[in-house]
Design brief:
By secondary structure, the chain is mainly α.
């Protein structure tokens, strides 16, 4: 659970990028985060604050799970778009590949409606299958 919270903190804030852009020591920051977490946990143990867990409802739990799921989905789409930008799909495999010029892109637009439609169908079918599986369990 603690690792998930630290991972969530780093995904939301991109703290590594902030520290590297400002030439600050990232590992020292992680050390102090660990010290603060240890201090807060000691206070929680000393005052028996774990008894407050009974006030956490299923809504809170599901909201947190939704946040983590959305972060995973957004990160996956970022990686997909990065791959699409840097390694474009060859939609005409019969045509020979032309790697003679790297400095000027061709001045034409590519019609990706078939690719977008296929991607949409796959996403919707996976969502439907996961909905059916959740209902059966």
């Amino acid at each position: 659970m603690l690792n998930d919270l630290v991972w969530l903190f780093h995904c939301i804030s991109n703290i590594y990028l902030v520290y590297s852009d400002n030439h600050l020591n990232y590992l020292a920051m992680r050390f102090w985060i660990g010290i603060w977490v240890a201090l807060i946990l000691m206070i929680m143990v000393a005052f028996d604050l774990s008894a407050l867990v009974r006030y956490i409802t299923r809504f809170t739990e599901e909201s947190f799970a939704l946040l983590i799921a959305l972060i995973f989905i957004v990160e996956a789409f970022k990686k997909l778009f990065h791959i699409l930008d840097h390694n474009a799909i060859n939609l005409n495999p019969d045509d020979p590949l032309d790697y003679t010029c790297w400095c000027e892109p061709k001045n034409e637009t590519l019609n990706n409606t078939a690719l977008q439609t296929t991607t949409g169908i796959v996403i919707l079918s996976l969502a439907f299958i996961s909905f059916l599986m959740k209902r059966k369990i």
